[in-house]
Amino acid sequence: MTWVEYIIRIASPHSKGSAKHWFRYLRKDIDKLDILFTKQDIESLYKNEALTPFQRVSIKQAFETDSPTRRHIINLNKKVNHNKISSIMEKYENDTY
After folding, report:
1. pLDDT per residue over 33-81, tens digit each?
2. pLDDT at res. 80
3. Torsion, Cα of 29, 31, 32, 36 (10° steps)
């Protein structure tokens, strides 16, 4: 199964209605762009009717250098600093809403 087939058959149907889930599929391979993807692959996905409009646009944006979508996906691949999260939780623990 090629990457394009995987996106159309598995990732697209499983993530319809969930941008977070969709970006998780994309982040698995975003750093391997030079190896796995061609411009033709991206264009064929962009034109494919099996993907929702959001999925098509985000595919196109994900593979444009320095786009906000690409930066977001790359940030998903970075490790979380749990100490920072703990300090934020402690800071707001006593706040009432």
Report:
1. 555 677 888 888 889 899 999 999 888 888 887 888 888 888 877 776 6
2. 63
3. 60
Please tell me the distance from the alpha carbon of residue 64 to that of residue 58, in angstroms, as a whole number. 10
The ranges assigned to domains in the chain are 3-92
Euclidean distance between CA atoms 1 and 18, whole angstroms: 24
Query: What is the per-residue pLDDT for 21?
Result: 85
Residue 22 CB contacts under 8 Å (≥ 6 apart), including other chains: 11, 15, 54, 55, 58
77, 18, 65, 56 alpha-carbon torsion, rounded to 10°: 150
As a three-state string, the secondary structure of 16-48 is CCCHHHHHHHHHCCHHHHHHHCCHHHHHHHHHC
Judge contact between 80 and 86, C-beta under 8 A: no
